[in-house]
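User: Structure with WQD, C-alpha coordinates only please.
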Amino acid sequence: MSKQVPRILLTGGAGYIGSHTFVKLRQAGIEPVILDNFANSHPAVIERLARITGAPVCLERGDVLDRAFVEDVLRRHAPAGVIHLAGDKAVGESVAHPLKYFRGNIAGAISLLEAMEAVYLPVGPLGPPTLVFSSTATVYGDAGTGPIAEDFPRRHSNPYGHTKLVIEDMLEAVQAARPEWRIGVLRYFNPVGAHPSALIGEDPTGTPNNLMPYLTQVAIGRRSHLRIFGGDYPTPDGTGVRDYIHIEDLADGHVAALRTLQRTGESFTVNLGTGRGYSVLEVVNAFVDATGCPVPYRIVERRPGDVAQCYADPSRAMQLLGWEAKRTLEQMCADAWRWQSRNPQGYASGMASAASSQATEKENGLLVIG
Ligand code: WQD
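Assistant:
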Protein backbone atom coordinates (compact mmCIF):
# COMPACT_ATOMS: atom_id res chain seq x y z
CA MET A 1 0.00 0.00 0.00
CA SER A 2 1.34 3.41 -0.94
CA LYS A 3 2.78 5.26 2.05
CA GLN A 4 1.34 8.52 0.74
CA VAL A 5 -2.27 7.38 1.09
CA PRO A 6 -3.65 8.81 4.36
CA ARG A 7 -5.27 6.19 6.59
CA ILE A 8 -8.37 6.49 8.73
CA LEU A 9 -9.56 4.06 11.42
CA LEU A 10 -13.24 3.21 10.80
CA THR A 11 -14.73 1.59 13.92
CA GLY A 12 -17.90 -0.35 13.11
CA GLY A 13 -16.75 -0.20 9.49
CA ALA A 14 -18.51 -3.45 8.53
CA GLY A 15 -21.92 -2.07 9.53
CA TYR A 16 -24.59 -0.37 7.41
CA ILE A 17 -23.19 3.16 7.69
CA GLY A 18 -19.59 2.01 8.05
CA SER A 19 -19.53 -0.06 4.87
CA HIS A 20 -20.97 2.75 2.74
CA THR A 21 -18.54 5.22 4.33
CA PHE A 22 -15.67 2.82 3.59
CA VAL A 23 -16.44 2.97 -0.14
CA LYS A 24 -16.64 6.77 -0.16
CA LEU A 25 -13.36 7.12 1.77
CA ARG A 26 -11.53 4.92 -0.72
CA GLN A 27 -13.04 6.84 -3.62
CA ALA A 28 -11.74 10.02 -1.94
CA GLY A 29 -8.20 8.60 -1.87
CA ILE A 30 -8.30 7.83 1.85
CA GLU A 31 -7.40 4.31 3.05
CA PRO A 32 -9.77 3.07 5.78
CA VAL A 33 -8.78 0.40 8.30
CA ILE A 34 -11.91 -1.35 9.61
CA LEU A 35 -12.13 -2.21 13.32
CA ASP A 36 -15.18 -4.41 13.89
CA ASN A 37 -16.23 -7.35 16.10
CA PHE A 38 -19.19 -8.25 13.83
CA ALA A 39 -21.62 -7.98 16.75
CA ASN A 40 -23.89 -5.83 14.55
CA SER A 41 -22.57 -6.68 11.10
CA HIS A 42 -21.79 -9.62 8.82
CA PRO A 43 -18.29 -10.85 7.81
CA ALA A 44 -19.49 -11.15 4.21
CA VAL A 45 -19.40 -7.34 4.00
CA ILE A 46 -15.60 -7.36 3.92
CA GLU A 47 -15.31 -9.40 0.74
CA ARG A 48 -18.06 -7.35 -0.88
CA LEU A 49 -16.20 -4.12 -0.06
CA ALA A 50 -13.15 -5.61 -1.74
CA ARG A 51 -15.29 -6.37 -4.80
CA ILE A 52 -16.79 -2.85 -4.95
CA THR A 53 -13.46 -1.06 -4.47
CA GLY A 54 -11.22 -3.55 -6.30
CA ALA A 55 -8.65 -3.84 -3.52
CA PRO A 56 -8.12 -5.97 -0.40
CA VAL A 57 -9.70 -4.64 2.79
CA CYS A 58 -7.66 -4.12 5.94
CA LEU A 59 -9.68 -5.52 8.84
CA GLU A 60 -8.78 -5.48 12.53
CA ARG A 61 -11.24 -7.87 14.15
CA GLY A 62 -11.87 -6.94 17.77
CA ASP A 63 -13.90 -4.92 20.25
CA VAL A 64 -13.64 -1.17 20.71
CA LEU A 65 -14.13 -1.86 24.44
CA ASP A 66 -10.67 -3.49 24.47
CA ARG A 67 -8.59 -0.39 24.96
CA ALA A 68 -5.21 -2.13 24.68
CA PHE A 69 -6.34 -3.62 21.36
CA VAL A 70 -7.52 -0.24 20.07
CA GLU A 71 -4.27 1.45 21.13
CA ASP A 72 -2.25 -1.28 19.41
CA VAL A 73 -4.30 -0.83 16.21
CA LEU A 74 -3.72 2.94 16.29
CA ARG A 75 0.02 2.53 16.83
CA ARG A 76 0.41 -0.07 14.06
CA HIS A 77 -1.66 1.74 11.42
CA ALA A 78 -0.95 5.36 12.44
CA PRO A 79 -4.25 6.71 11.02
CA ALA A 80 -4.61 10.47 10.52
CA GLY A 81 -8.00 10.23 12.26
CA VAL A 82 -10.83 8.05 13.49
CA ILE A 83 -14.46 7.77 12.39
CA HIS A 84 -16.31 6.17 15.32
CA LEU A 85 -19.43 4.25 14.27
CA ALA A 86 -19.16 1.12 16.43
CA GLY A 87 -22.11 0.78 18.81
CA ASP A 88 -25.70 -0.36 19.23
CA LYS A 89 -28.55 1.68 17.76
CA ALA A 90 -31.93 -0.02 18.21
CA VAL A 91 -34.22 2.23 20.25
CA GLY A 92 -36.56 -0.59 21.33
CA GLU A 93 -33.68 -2.86 22.36
CA SER A 94 -32.14 -0.02 24.37
CA VAL A 95 -35.35 0.27 26.42
CA ALA A 96 -35.31 -3.47 27.14
CA HIS A 97 -31.54 -3.72 27.76
CA PRO A 98 -30.29 -0.28 28.90
CA LEU A 99 -27.05 -1.55 30.49
CA LYS A 100 -25.96 -3.16 27.20
CA TYR A 101 -26.28 0.29 25.61
CA PHE A 102 -24.66 2.28 28.41
CA ARG A 103 -21.74 -0.12 28.51
CA GLY A 104 -21.32 -0.71 24.79
CA ASN A 105 -21.81 2.85 23.58
CA ILE A 106 -20.46 4.96 26.45
CA ALA A 107 -17.69 2.67 27.74
CA GLY A 108 -16.77 1.93 24.12
CA ALA A 109 -16.37 5.66 23.43
CA ILE A 110 -14.31 6.11 26.60
CA SER A 111 -12.03 3.23 25.58
CA LEU A 112 -11.48 4.76 22.14
CA LEU A 113 -10.89 8.29 23.50
CA GLU A 114 -8.37 7.03 26.06
CA ALA A 115 -6.51 5.07 23.38
CA MET A 116 -6.47 8.13 21.14
CA GLU A 117 -5.15 10.33 23.96
CA ALA A 118 -2.33 7.85 24.57
CA VAL A 119 -1.35 7.79 20.89
CA TYR A 120 -1.94 11.36 19.66
CA LEU A 121 -1.06 13.47 22.73
CA PRO A 122 1.20 15.27 23.07
CA VAL A 123 0.77 16.10 19.41
CA GLY A 124 3.49 14.42 17.37
CA PRO A 125 4.12 13.38 13.76
CA LEU A 126 0.65 11.83 13.53
CA GLY A 127 -0.96 15.21 14.11
CA PRO A 128 -3.65 16.10 16.69
CA PRO A 129 -6.35 13.63 17.74
CA THR A 130 -9.03 13.86 15.00
CA LEU A 131 -12.41 12.24 15.49
CA VAL A 132 -15.69 12.08 13.55
CA PHE A 133 -18.45 10.81 15.84
CA SER A 134 -21.72 9.17 14.82
CA SER A 135 -24.52 10.85 16.77
CA THR A 136 -28.26 10.99 16.07
CA ALA A 137 -31.26 13.28 15.76
CA THR A 138 -32.74 11.32 18.65
CA VAL A 139 -30.80 13.62 20.99
CA TYR A 140 -33.35 16.32 20.15
CA GLY A 141 -36.28 14.46 21.72
CA ASP A 142 -39.65 15.92 20.67
CA ALA A 143 -38.65 19.15 18.93
CA GLY A 144 -42.14 20.22 17.79
CA THR A 145 -43.09 20.74 14.17
CA GLY A 146 -40.47 22.86 12.41
CA PRO A 147 -37.02 22.02 11.03
CA ILE A 148 -34.51 21.22 13.79
CA ALA A 149 -31.28 23.24 14.08
CA GLU A 150 -28.17 22.17 16.02
CA ASP A 151 -28.78 24.66 18.82
CA PHE A 152 -32.18 23.15 19.65
CA PRO A 153 -32.42 21.78 23.19
CA ARG A 154 -31.32 18.17 23.59
CA ARG A 155 -33.39 15.74 25.59
CA HIS A 156 -33.06 11.96 25.57
CA SER A 157 -36.26 9.97 25.12
CA ASN A 158 -34.73 6.46 25.32
CA PRO A 159 -31.48 4.86 26.57
CA TYR A 160 -30.03 4.74 23.03
CA GLY A 161 -30.49 8.50 22.55
CA HIS A 162 -29.26 9.02 26.13
CA THR A 163 -25.94 7.29 25.35
CA LYS A 164 -25.38 9.54 22.32
CA LEU A 165 -26.18 12.61 24.38
CA VAL A 166 -23.74 11.54 27.13
CA ILE A 167 -21.00 10.89 24.56
CA GLU A 168 -21.56 14.31 23.01
CA ASP A 169 -21.14 15.83 26.48
CA MET A 170 -17.97 13.74 27.06
CA LEU A 171 -16.53 15.03 23.77
CA GLU A 172 -17.26 18.60 24.83
CA ALA A 173 -15.39 18.06 28.12
CA VAL A 174 -12.44 16.38 26.37
CA GLN A 175 -12.26 19.28 23.94
CA ALA A 176 -12.33 21.84 26.79
CA ALA A 177 -9.55 20.00 28.64
CA ARG A 178 -7.35 19.52 25.57
CA PRO A 179 -8.02 22.08 22.79
CA GLU A 180 -5.75 20.08 20.46
CA TRP A 181 -8.67 17.71 19.80
CA ARG A 182 -10.47 18.12 16.47
CA ILE A 183 -13.97 16.67 16.78
CA GLY A 184 -16.82 16.53 14.26
CA VAL A 185 -20.20 15.40 15.68
CA LEU A 186 -22.68 14.21 13.03
CA ARG A 187 -26.35 13.98 14.02
CA TYR A 188 -27.95 11.52 11.59
CA PHE A 189 -31.61 11.77 10.74
CA ASN A 190 -33.07 8.67 9.04
CA PRO A 191 -30.55 6.88 6.82
CA VAL A 192 -32.11 4.60 4.18
CA GLY A 193 -31.21 3.03 0.83
CA ALA A 194 -28.13 1.15 -0.35
CA HIS A 195 -25.10 1.33 -2.60
CA PRO A 196 -26.23 1.19 -6.27
CA SER A 197 -24.27 -2.05 -6.78
CA ALA A 198 -26.64 -3.79 -4.31
CA LEU A 199 -23.57 -5.55 -2.89
CA ILE A 200 -23.95 -3.74 0.45
CA GLY A 201 -27.07 -2.48 2.20
CA GLU A 202 -29.10 -2.43 5.41
CA ASP A 203 -29.34 -5.90 6.97
CA PRO A 204 -30.99 -5.65 10.40
CA THR A 205 -30.89 -8.68 12.67
CA GLY A 206 -34.30 -10.20 13.41
CA THR A 207 -37.43 -8.06 13.02
CA PRO A 208 -36.50 -4.64 11.64
CA ASN A 209 -37.31 -1.71 13.93
CA ASN A 210 -36.92 0.83 11.16
CA LEU A 211 -39.45 1.62 8.44
CA MET A 212 -37.50 1.01 5.23
CA PRO A 213 -36.04 -2.45 5.94
CA TYR A 214 -39.44 -3.60 7.23
CA LEU A 215 -41.09 -2.19 4.11
CA THR A 216 -38.67 -3.95 1.74
CA GLN A 217 -39.19 -7.25 3.61
CA VAL A 218 -42.94 -6.86 3.05
CA ALA A 219 -42.32 -6.10 -0.63
CA ILE A 220 -40.18 -9.22 -1.04
CA GLY A 221 -42.76 -11.37 0.74
CA ARG A 222 -40.86 -12.10 3.95
CA ARG A 223 -43.60 -10.30 5.93
CA SER A 224 -47.35 -10.16 5.27
CA HIS A 225 -47.90 -6.43 5.69
CA LEU A 226 -46.51 -3.18 7.07
CA ARG A 227 -47.92 -1.89 10.34
CA ILE A 228 -48.09 1.90 10.16
CA PHE A 229 -47.71 3.12 13.74
CA GLY A 230 -50.36 5.79 14.17
CA GLY A 231 -52.63 7.53 11.69
CA ASP A 232 -53.75 10.34 14.01
CA TYR A 233 -50.63 12.49 14.35
CA PRO A 234 -50.92 16.25 13.71
CA THR A 235 -49.35 15.82 10.24
CA PRO A 236 -50.78 16.28 6.72
CA ASP A 237 -51.94 12.66 6.43
CA GLY A 238 -51.85 11.67 10.11
CA THR A 239 -48.76 9.44 9.85
CA GLY A 240 -45.31 10.21 11.29
CA VAL A 241 -42.98 12.55 9.37
CA ARG A 242 -39.22 11.96 9.23
CA ASP A 243 -36.18 13.25 7.33
CA TYR A 244 -35.03 10.28 5.25
CA ILE A 245 -31.52 10.63 3.87
CA HIS A 246 -29.86 8.36 1.31
CA ILE A 247 -27.03 6.35 2.88
CA GLU A 248 -24.77 7.47 0.03
CA ASP A 249 -25.37 11.12 0.96
CA LEU A 250 -24.74 10.28 4.60
CA ALA A 251 -21.47 8.57 3.69
CA ASP A 252 -20.43 11.61 1.63
CA GLY A 253 -21.09 13.68 4.75
CA HIS A 254 -18.47 11.69 6.68
CA VAL A 255 -15.80 12.37 4.06
CA ALA A 256 -16.73 16.07 4.06
CA ALA A 257 -16.58 16.15 7.88
CA LEU A 258 -13.13 14.57 7.97
CA ARG A 259 -11.77 16.90 5.31
CA THR A 260 -13.20 19.95 7.10
CA LEU A 261 -11.56 18.96 10.40
CA GLN A 262 -8.23 18.46 8.67
CA ARG A 263 -8.55 21.72 6.73
CA THR A 264 -9.78 24.06 9.48
CA GLY A 265 -8.80 22.28 12.70
CA GLU A 266 -12.11 23.57 14.10
CA SER A 267 -14.51 21.20 15.87
CA PHE A 268 -18.21 21.26 14.94
CA THR A 269 -21.63 19.60 15.37
CA VAL A 270 -23.90 19.32 12.32
CA ASN A 271 -27.18 17.70 11.29
CA LEU A 272 -27.01 15.24 8.41
CA GLY A 273 -30.48 15.40 6.89
CA THR A 274 -32.17 16.63 3.73
CA GLY A 275 -34.31 19.34 5.37
CA ARG A 276 -37.43 17.67 3.84
CA GLY A 277 -39.80 15.55 5.91
CA TYR A 278 -41.86 12.73 4.42
CA SER A 279 -44.75 10.90 6.10
CA VAL A 280 -44.89 7.13 6.35
CA LEU A 281 -47.67 7.02 3.73
CA GLU A 282 -45.61 9.22 1.39
CA VAL A 283 -42.70 6.79 1.73
CA VAL A 284 -44.95 3.81 1.06
CA ASN A 285 -46.42 5.46 -2.05
CA ALA A 286 -42.99 6.55 -3.28
CA PHE A 287 -41.74 2.99 -2.82
CA VAL A 288 -44.65 1.50 -4.80
CA ASP A 289 -44.17 4.10 -7.57
CA ALA A 290 -40.39 3.49 -7.71
CA THR A 291 -40.52 -0.30 -7.66
CA GLY A 292 -43.95 -1.38 -8.85
CA CYS A 293 -44.12 -3.63 -5.77
CA PRO A 294 -47.40 -3.64 -3.84
CA VAL A 295 -47.01 -2.97 -0.11
CA PRO A 296 -49.99 -4.12 1.95
CA TYR A 297 -50.29 -2.09 5.16
CA ARG A 298 -52.52 -1.60 8.16
CA ILE A 299 -52.65 1.55 10.27
CA VAL A 300 -52.37 0.52 13.94
CA GLU A 301 -51.84 2.32 17.25
CA ARG A 302 -48.92 4.66 17.75
CA ARG A 303 -45.52 3.23 18.79
CA PRO A 304 -44.50 4.40 22.30
CA GLY A 305 -41.73 6.98 22.18
CA ASP A 306 -42.44 8.11 18.60
CA VAL A 307 -42.76 11.81 17.85
CA ALA A 308 -45.05 13.30 15.19
CA GLN A 309 -42.39 15.08 13.17
CA CYS A 310 -38.58 15.14 13.04
CA TYR A 311 -36.70 16.73 10.18
CA ALA A 312 -33.50 18.74 9.89
CA ASP A 313 -32.46 22.28 9.20
CA PRO A 314 -29.31 21.18 7.30
CA SER A 315 -27.96 24.67 6.60
CA ARG A 316 -25.01 24.49 9.00
CA ALA A 317 -23.64 21.39 7.23
CA MET A 318 -23.68 23.32 3.96
CA GLN A 319 -22.01 26.36 5.58
CA LEU A 320 -19.28 24.43 7.41
CA LEU A 321 -18.74 21.32 5.30
CA GLY A 322 -19.94 22.47 1.90
CA TRP A 323 -22.13 19.34 2.02
CA GLU A 324 -25.79 18.80 1.21
CA ALA A 325 -27.92 15.75 0.48
CA LYS A 326 -28.54 15.28 -3.24
CA ARG A 327 -30.48 12.03 -3.71
CA THR A 328 -34.27 11.84 -3.93
CA LEU A 329 -36.78 9.72 -2.01
CA GLU A 330 -37.39 7.83 -5.25
CA GLN A 331 -33.68 6.93 -5.46
CA MET A 332 -33.71 5.88 -1.80
CA CYS A 333 -36.63 3.52 -2.49
CA ALA A 334 -35.20 2.15 -5.75
CA ASP A 335 -31.76 1.47 -4.19
CA ALA A 336 -33.26 -0.07 -1.05
CA TRP A 337 -35.38 -2.36 -3.20
CA ARG A 338 -32.46 -3.37 -5.49
CA TRP A 339 -30.45 -4.40 -2.40
CA GLN A 340 -33.35 -6.35 -0.85
CA SER A 341 -34.43 -8.05 -4.07
CA ARG A 342 -30.87 -9.23 -4.83
CA ASN A 343 -30.25 -10.22 -1.23
CA PRO A 344 -33.59 -11.64 0.01
CA GLN A 345 -31.99 -12.85 3.26
CA GLY A 346 -29.53 -9.96 3.50
CA TYR A 347 -25.88 -11.03 3.73
CA ALA A 348 -26.97 -14.52 4.73
CA SER A 349 -28.16 -14.83 1.12
CA GLY A 350 -24.58 -14.64 0.03
CA MET A 351 -23.08 -17.12 2.47
CA ALA A 352 -21.37 -18.83 -0.44
CA SER A 353 -19.58 -15.65 -1.39
CA ALA A 354 -18.47 -15.15 2.22
CA ALA A 355 -17.21 -18.69 2.46
CA SER A 356 -15.39 -18.35 -0.83
CA SER A 357 -13.57 -15.17 0.11
CA GLN A 358 -9.84 -15.74 0.51
CA ALA A 359 -8.99 -14.43 3.96
CA THR A 360 -5.27 -14.15 4.53
CA GLU A 361 -4.61 -14.48 8.22
CA LYS A 362 -1.69 -12.21 9.08
CA GLU A 363 0.16 -12.03 12.38
CA ASN A 364 -1.53 -10.14 15.28
CA GLY A 365 -5.00 -11.12 14.03
CA LEU A 366 -4.96 -8.73 11.08
CA LEU A 367 -7.08 -10.19 8.29
CA VAL A 368 -6.71 -9.03 4.71
CA ILE A 369 -9.65 -10.23 2.65
CA GLY A 370 -10.46 -9.99 -1.04
C1 WQD B 1 -39.74 6.09 11.04
C2 WQD B 1 -41.25 6.30 10.94
C3 WQD B 1 -42.47 5.23 12.69
C4 WQD B 1 -41.48 1.13 11.45
C5 WQD B 1 -34.94 5.63 14.64
C6 WQD B 1 -34.00 6.00 15.74
C7 WQD B 1 -33.00 7.00 15.22
C8 WQD B 1 -32.29 6.46 14.00
C9 WQD B 1 -33.31 6.04 12.94
C10 WQD B 1 -30.16 5.59 14.69
C11 WQD B 1 -41.90 6.58 12.29
C12 WQD B 1 -42.81 4.62 11.35
C13 WQD B 1 -41.55 2.51 11.54
C14 WQD B 1 -42.65 0.39 11.13
C15 WQD B 1 -43.89 2.43 11.01
N1 WQD B 1 -31.46 5.37 14.35
N2 WQD B 1 -42.74 3.14 11.31
N3 WQD B 1 -43.82 1.06 10.92
O1 WQD B 1 -37.98 6.02 14.92
O2 WQD B 1 -37.63 7.95 13.27
O3 WQD B 1 -35.65 6.79 14.24
O4 WQD B 1 -34.19 5.11 13.56
O5 WQD B 1 -29.53 6.60 14.65
O6 WQD B 1 -32.08 7.22 16.25
O7 WQD B 1 -34.76 6.61 16.75
O8 WQD B 1 -37.06 5.60 12.59
O9 WQD B 1 -37.62 3.98 10.83
O10 WQD B 1 -38.15 3.40 13.25
O11 WQD B 1 -39.51 5.13 12.07
O12 WQD B 1 -44.97 3.02 10.81
O13 WQD B 1 -42.65 -0.88 11.06
O14 WQD B 1 -41.84 5.11 10.44
O15 WQD B 1 -43.63 5.35 13.51
O16 WQD B 1 -42.97 7.50 12.07
P1 WQD B 1 -37.20 6.63 13.82
P2 WQD B 1 -38.07 4.43 12.19
